[in-house]
Amino acid sequence: MTQAPVRYLSTDEDSGRWDGFPFRQGDIVISTRSKSGTTWLQMICALLVFQTPDLPAPLPALSPWLDLLVTPEVEVFAQLEAQQHRRFVKTHTPLDGIPIDVRATYIVVARHPLDMAVSLYHQGDNLDRERMRRLAGQPEPDEPPAPRAPLREWLLGWIDRDVSHLDEMDSMPGVMWHLSDAWARRHEPNVVLVHYDDLISDLDGQMRRLAVLLGIDVAAEAWPDLVDAATFARMRSRADALAPNHAGILKDTAAFFRRGSSGSGRELVADDELAHYRKRVEQMAPKDLVDWLHR
Q1: What is the Rg, in whole angstroms, of the alpha carbon atoms belonging to the chain?
Q2: Which of 205-208's residues contact partners 24+ apart within 8 Å by CB, and which partners?
Q3: What is the Cα–Cα distance from 27 to 206, expressed in whole angstroms?
Q4: What helix, strand, coil percent values describe the chain, rounded to 5?
Q5: 9 located within any domain
Q6: pLDDT tens string 117-155
Q7: In this structure, is the dihedral angle defined by the CA atoms of residues 126, 155, 112 and 11, taken in order, positive or negative?
Q8: Which of 72, 86, 87, 149 could covalently link to 154 via disulfide, CB atoms 3.0 to 4.6 Å apart?
Q9: For the whole model, what pTM was predicted?
Q10: Cβ–Cβ < 8 Å for 161, 171
Q11: Is the pLDDT assigned to residue 241 strictly greater than 90?
Q12: 284 — phi, psi (to 5°)?
């Protein structure tokens, strides 16, 4: 008997939207934690599907974020239903919260959690939270939010925060649950894991690997332009067309592509703090995943 998906619900997202989603043969689901390479994988999929850097529409339109409450569910479903190309759908929901359909391929991107957290911190400054609240139909808060701690202090608190992955998917327990669940499924024929650092060190090789796994043939002469279009510099230069600025929720689309490299988390913590972080991670995930994630 197939177990029903777990429902992940926050002020911004609702994985319940996946219930009854009409999958098609060849659908691609990109499942990542926030700031772990989501837009990068969406762009790679777009380049492989359309086989040209000149995409026919902005990336968020080509690859809708199904769970985001900012856009009404009926609009997202209608958008996906109208698409004639091979669909590639964005979600930040772990795989245990999504129906696993044999017709679809599920791609999960893993990034060093400390780097992901630093990027998430900066992303928080770039979001128009008031606009998101109104668009998602959330009530006005009783009190203004408390100011955030400086980055280093916030990061150390993020490492130590104990919270359920169901309540805070972007917490460290949430990140490690998302990756542990995908890691346990990595031998399934329609589940693919991608490491963020592999995209940095061998973008060409990773794009070719994904093309094979997705059953997409690419002409040899097309590869250089496709790989170039997926580089951080080229994507940042096209931020207005590629950043997930649904209904104007970003203050600055270029700022969404902030750094595009690894190591920003390690730069902020001392050796003993890093050792403490590693001990915490090892309590949340199997050793082979921890070694792969931090290699």
Answers
A1: 19
A2: 206/44, 207/44, 207/47, 207/48
A3: 19
A4: 50, 10, 40
A5: no
A6: 998 888 766 666 677 677 667 777 777 777 888 999 999
A7: negative
A8: 149
A9: 0.91
A10: yes
A11: no
A12: -110, -10
Mean pLDDT of 100-110: 98
Q: What is the pLDDT of residues 1-57, one digit of tens each?
A: 568 899 999 988 999 999 989 999 999 999 999 999 999 999 999 999 999 999 999
* CATH number, domain containing residue 206: 3.40.50.300
Q: Which two tokens stand for residue 272?
A: 């003993």
- Cα–Cα distance for residue pair 295/288, rounded to 1 Å: 10
Answer for the pair 69, 12: CB distance below 8 angstroms, yes or no: yes
Which residue do the tokens 């400054």 mark?
A: 125
Domain count, the chain: 1
DSSP string, 177-236: HHHHHHHHTTTSTTEEEEEHHHHHH-HHHHHHHHHHHTT----GGGHHHHHHHTSHHHHH
Residues 294, 290: Cα–Cα separation, whole Å:
6
Token pair, residue 223, equals 């590869």
Using alpha carbons, list the distances in angstroms from residue 78 to 21, 42, 226, 277: 11, 20, 29, 44
Catalytic-residue membership of 276: no
Q: Is 211 a member of any domain?
A: yes
* 155 inside domain: yes
Region of 187 (left: φ > 0; alpha: ψ -120 to 50; beta: rest) is: alpha
Task: Report the share of the chain in percent with pLDDT over 90.
Answer: 73
| CA distances in angstroms from 77 to 82, 84, 116, 155, 194, listed in the order given | 9, 13, 29, 37, 27
- Per annotation, catalytic residue among 85, 92, 122, 187: 92
Domain that holds residue 43: 15-293
Report yes or no on 240 lying in a domain: yes
- The predicted model gives 69-83 an average pLDDT of 94
